[in-house]
Design goal:
Elements (H helix, E strand, L loop, with lengths): L33 E6 L4 H11 L7 E7 L4 E7 L2 H4 L2 H5 L5 E7 L14 E5 L2 E11 L2 H10 L11 H9 L4 H10 L3 E8 L4 E5 L8 E5 L2 E5 L3 H6 L2 E5 L4 E6 L2 E6 L8 E2 H7 L5 E2 L2 E2 H15 L6 E4 L5 H11 L7 E3 L12 H5 L6 E3 L1 H4 L3 E6 L6 H12 L4 E6 L27 H8 L3 E4 L2 H8 L11 E2 L1 H4 L19
Parallel strand pairs: 14-23, 17-20, 20-21, 21-22
Antiparallel strand pairs: 1-4, 1-10, 2-3, 2-4, 5-6, 6-7, 7-8, 8-12, 9-10, 9-11, 12-13, 15-16, 18-19
Helix pairs in contact: 5-6, 9-10, 9-15
Keywords: 4Fe-4S, Glutamine amidotransferase, Glycosyltransferase, Iron, Iron-sulfur, Magnesium, Metal-binding, Purine biosynthesis, Transferase
Enzyme class: transferase
Family: In the C-terminal section; belongs to the purine/pyrimidine phosphoribosyltransferase family.
Amino acid sequence: MSDAIIPQGLWTGDYYNQGTGKNDIFDTLKEECGVFGVFGHPEAASLSYYGLHALQHRGEESAGLCVTNGDEFNYYRGMGLVKEVFDRDRLSSLHGERSIGHVRYSTNGDTSLMNAQPLIFKYRDGDLAVATNGNIVNAPQIRHQLEQSGSIFQTTSDTEVIAHLIARSSKDFVEAARDALGQLVGGFAFLLLTNDKMIAASDRHGLRPLTMGRLGDAYLFSSETCAFEVVGAETVRDILPGEMLVLDREGIHEDRYAEPQRKALCAMEYIYFSRPDSDMNGSNIHAARKRMGQVMAQESFVDADVVTGVPDSSISAAIGYAEQTGIPYELGLIKNKYTGRTFIQPSQELREQGVKMKLSAVRRVVEGKRVVMIDDSIVRGTTSRRIVNLLREAGATEVHVRITSPPFKNPCFYGIDTPSRAELIASSKSVEEIRQEINADSLEFLSAEGLISAVEGDNAKNYKGGLCMACFDNDYPTRTNFEGEEKFGCSC
């Protein structure tokens, strides 16, 4: 796509930048989804509200809560941000001490309310609610088999397949859930809720994050630990690969539905997705990103006057690069946080330079300076070129780009909305060709070894540091192709 023309058809939803998926004007990787659960607290709905608000960065298109007091489900789902979907009256109507909640980003432009989670079902044993983050790679195959045998699906979400597998089983809920989870291939974190039980489960490789916390006698579950801090809970531990925790009136029961496979937490959680105040696998995200910047400086130093990071995910790495090199860190780029949901279609001029709706260069900081611009990744290259040109237009004499991840060459099958391999600039161009494409004076990427060493944490001695790096090296931890089906992004 050229920089000069952004097709009118980009704006296809109710508001600008809604569900544009791979045609997003800002050309960035899309957040996945976030889940939050509470078991055993009288204010479960309120806790979940604040927890989901802390996870808002993982999905901005829909939000939902399901709460139970043991007798019936009370639930509400809506399109939009958490604060737009829930108000005081709606929250006060959600009674119960157990809840699961969800924030969603739809990757295919499908923003229908029917796909908002938690998904709610009635089956022979009562009510069932399901919330998940991730992607079930073999869901099309399972769905086809279920439909052939008479199942009728109500949504286009892959999450629905687990409900059908549970409902069709003759076993009790826990055994049925264990069997159902065992049939799934992919990266996922599930929260399942019935009238008297909750199940938290992670995929065999731990691709998608899920952690457990405590607040008094209550158990909490979240995609990120930052949500525990917001509600005053303490983090207990991560849910292990292949693990299935069952909670009921008797407490918590540690179980598993499959033996753990190679640990492979998504590397992009550290690089881009997670909030800096979250911890994963014993490593703080902000600290890990600072180390990425420090290692980047050791691998690819360049003499310059200022270091700046592309907000928000690259700020920590930019600070690390500056500390390592002694080059001053400055706020050379400022993010406008209010561009995501505007009902006013941008003018032709703004569509031609769409990045200016989101970022501004600080002229007084960069004018006449040699600038090191730190960013987390390059997808198609269009946004990187626009940001480099922003800095040049603001008077930067040189712009040296440093990327705190290896070249992004391969699509993700486990819950990140990525373009096809052919659309990823690093899959077909050399580093020098990308440098020319983005109009930078120099360009360097962090090495895979540098990334692994920077993340550290509890899995530093594991294969690849316990990370999934398939988007960089094409080494997928699971099968990715079933019956010719290839899907990108989060299909929850």
